[in-house]
User: Fold this.
Amino acid sequence: MARGTRPTRAARLVLLLAVLAMLGVAPASAAQPETVYFPSADGRTELTGYLFKPQGAGPFPAIIMLHGRGGPYSSNVNADCTLVSRAVPASPCNAGTLSKRHIMWGDYWAERGYIALLPDSFGPRGKAHGFGRFTHDDPERADVNERTVRPLDAEGALAYLRQRRDVAAERIVLQGWSNGGSTVLNVLLREGLQSSFRGALIFYPGCGESSLLGPTLKTRVPVQLFLAADDEEVSPSLCNAMAERSRQAGVAIDTTIYPGATHGFDEPSASRQATPGNGPAMDDTLRRAAPLVFEWLRR
Assistant:
């Protein structure tokens, strides 16, 4: 290619396929995710999960996606849902009614050659309806909290993926949003320097004392924080301070704060994207996420 010319679309496609070939993966066509069931590491809860898969046999690297306080389902249906389990197959909360954000990201990873697993922490515990804004102190959230409960679900998801023949067991990354982002941080806080994960993508988490198990990360896992400058639900400054303390402790943690963006900026719905800062923030995370994970898995 001549110096100074931009690659054609065909050339970019060839490059993408070459990268996927290096990873031993194949692109996928968008399809409804598979519903799977596996135990939480709490030893008593059978979780429902949604598996987005590339084409081919693998083994593929994998992403564990942890939903926020609204749960994994569309707001159009989750008010009618309570229990989601293997024993309740007719629930309106299912693989076909996941939220637009979770479908977007699940398809994003599958199209790039990753298995993506979205565990439902709320539905199997009778709370598929999720929770509204500013409900962090609601007593009903205690038994699905991000400090002591949901990290065990992430550990259960990791164990489940590692026993699948189509997953590269040592190439698994965490991704979480809001309450799920705090859960990712708590997984890393629990594991310390012995973490089994290869990286963490974290979107607008809560970073206050009531959300996290500790004030500073001590982990070998590279972390990327995506924060909203105009977040109306959590404090980006608290997360920025936590990240700075963690960097001083030797953690590879980077922070991006998007000006004009609000909580949930990567929700692709028209209402959320009507905020001017949200579209550029979402586009930037979609541009950067896959290259970040690719680099983490090369190490």
User: Anything to note?
Assistant: The two ends are 29 Å apart (CA to CA).
